Amino acid sequence: MPALIDMIDQGRKIPHHRPWARAVVHSDVWRFAASQLAETHWLLLGLWGDTHAVHMALLEEGSTGIGVISLECADGRFPSVGQTHPPALRLERTIRDLFGLEPTAGPDPRPWLDHGWWGLRYPLGARVGHPIEGYSYDFLPSEGESLHQIAVGPVHAGIIEPGHFRFTANGETVVRLEERLGYVHKGIEGLMAGADLTMAARLAGRTSGDSTVAYGIAFARAAEAALDIAPPPRAVWLRALMAEIERLANHVGDIGAICNDAAFALMHAHCAILRERVLRAANECFGHRLMRDRALPGGVATDLEASGIACLRALVVEFRRRFPALVDLYDNTASLQDRTVGTGVLQPTLARQYACGGYVGRASGRNFDARRMPGYPPYDSLRFEVPLLEAGDVNARVWVRIREVEQSLSLIEQILNQLPGGPICADVARSGAGPREGVALVEGFRGDILIWLRLGGDGKVERCHLRDPSWFQWPLLEAAVEGNIVADFPLCNKSFNCSYSGHDL
Amino acid sequence: MAVILDFAAQVAQMLVVLLLAPLLTGFVRKIKARLLRRQGPPLIQPYRDLIWLLHKEVVLAENASWLFRVAPYLIFATTWVAAALVPTFGTGLMFSWTADLIAITALLASARFFLALAGMDVGTSFGGIGSSREMMIASLAEPAMMMIVFTLALMAGSTQLSTISGVMLSPEIGLRISLGLALLALIIVAIAENARIPVDNPATHLELTMVHEAMVLEYSGRHLAVLELAASLKLLLYVSLIICIFVPWGLVPTGAGHAGYVIGAAAYAAKLAAGGLLLALFETAIAKMRVFRVPNFLGAALMLGLLGTLLRFISRSL
After folding, report:
1. Which of A99, A337, A472, B189 could form a disulfide with A49 if both were Cys (CB 3.0 to 4.6 A apart)?
2. What's the total number of domains in chain A?
3. By residue range, what is the domain housing residue A77?
4. What CATH number did the domain enclosing A392 receive?
5. Domain residue extents for chain B
6. Is the pLDDT score of B117 beyond 60?
7. Which of A131-135, B19-23, B144-148 shows the lowest mean pLDDT across its residues?
8. Which of B124, B283, B290 should we substitute to test contact with A (largest number of A Cβ atoms within 10 Å)?
């Protein structure tokens, strides 16, 4: 089995692609990569289109190798990866919808993000097409006696993001769940093209509101890699601080929301109070409750004052005092445990096949955290553990969150203790001419966010791809729900808490 | 004069349950909110909601049949009659001879029958899910209820509520195991019948987990108002039922004067508030159970009822 780095060396290396190499390869190498993916020697980090090419980001575990391979599609076709590696299916359908590039022998000819409402086809492609006449969408059939379908959404009884779920059930047991997403497509990648760095960073921060810090950091790191500049140390530490605050707020909110879906509102109320404390502290320290637009290419927008440090220390103390009682409440409520233990089990093999990150992957035994591997500063000089569980049920996903909350508290303390001084933003004035490319993998609260960026000669964004961790978690939800009862779906769904906005882009 | 007073008392009872029902619902919601450290809506919010819904336009599904339109009124009427039959502040009311436990159970069963039909009428998947779950719950809750009725009837020699509460008030009844079993069973049945946690969640927005709410999901405007009121009435009915059978102290006996009615009303209000408080506490402390656990939960009620009946056969003193 050749190493990923060897394969990239065989191709035509692209200069100014940082920090990992990118190579243009032949279609047989592309097919070989697909076969390696199918055997899970390598893992798929992303698959995205360009005007005349497709790109694939690959991860080789163990050797910490990450690489991007590209295939030029002169005839508008490329060999399907999804044919042998199902995680690529929806990504390929998206490439077709946005760029009009056709996966050869692709197993699923249906559109994905394009719901026939755009008034055109292939909005980012070389040639924009006319909209499809008589658009229709067929769900996959399920055959058998006494099966019935339940259609849920995209408009739900609660105020949540839109997504359609088609259940085929036998009585109360789910036989198949099929998702349909794309209702909140905002065309972020289209808006990115031609935007300057400031505008593009703002767009990236609006991809998924709950991960705005992580997206901001990912975009900043991709841009800094492309421009080959280093942000000042204080900015790097402040970014990590914001990322951990964001993780803290989201995890605590999720723990409460999962319990609320089992009609245990008490936990929800207590967790909501804690989450609110975090958001207020963020507002006091950084001037925005969700810290949006605070991480910018070159550094951060707001410095942390001494009062902010005191505020965060008080927050950590309060959390340490109140959070263990909530964990006990969760662990000692038998009626709640009865709902979460053994519900929505995700098999570790599937988590690995889909390279599923975040708490979903870590609750199913996939030991991956972008802060560790590939790792980025300042996490190399911080002590933290990556919690890992094997059970893969709702309970395990709750426990991974609980452990990560504890880790985030410790990280916040460490960062506050070691925060270096100095400037908070470097100049991002362009150095060097010609197109430059950068890629970044950043751990958001949901999992690893991949951003790939190409800057043109004028310093504007030519192409930017943002891959939300939900791309590899949504399909697994379908698998985890199978065999459970219909009424347990909300609980499973909440424990995954995938992003609609980040996925639909 | 006596006839007029009796009639007035009967009418008052009918109106009291109708007017009090939303207040009890509002009270339970308020207590639950306070337990969660929230402010909660004002106590009169359910009344405001009803008025607001009555002013709203009714939106009907295209394929809704006449049954869908008639069902809310049928459900409301049967539930109201059933609720009005349960002695609240006094026993010796004009129509108390009709206040038969079996009649009340039958009235509620027919209300449920119409609700389940209405849930399936439009043909949405949620209505169907709700109806099928409701019927599963009913198939266990109703036999349990009958067992409770038998236990009480064996003790009091009658299924009439006035007589039963009279017997309960008499000094010779004392503490009995079978009564305790019946009380426990009745509480379980009441929780299941009123779609409360842990069987159903009245406040959920998750369509897939709903039971009662799924059946009324397609209703709007005055239809929904009437159904909401019927649901409130049913809650009041069950709380009143538990009160009048197991805590009958303060009930106004036949032919009492005005003062007696005042005391009876005050005692009823206090007992109702205590019932609402206990319900809110219980609901806050527990998570909802899986749909397939509900049969075990209700099966316990059925067994307790059966045990109570059997104990009565074995020994008169148990």
Report:
1. A99
2. 2
3. 4-104
4. 1.10.645.10
5. 2-314
6. yes
7. A131-135
8. B290
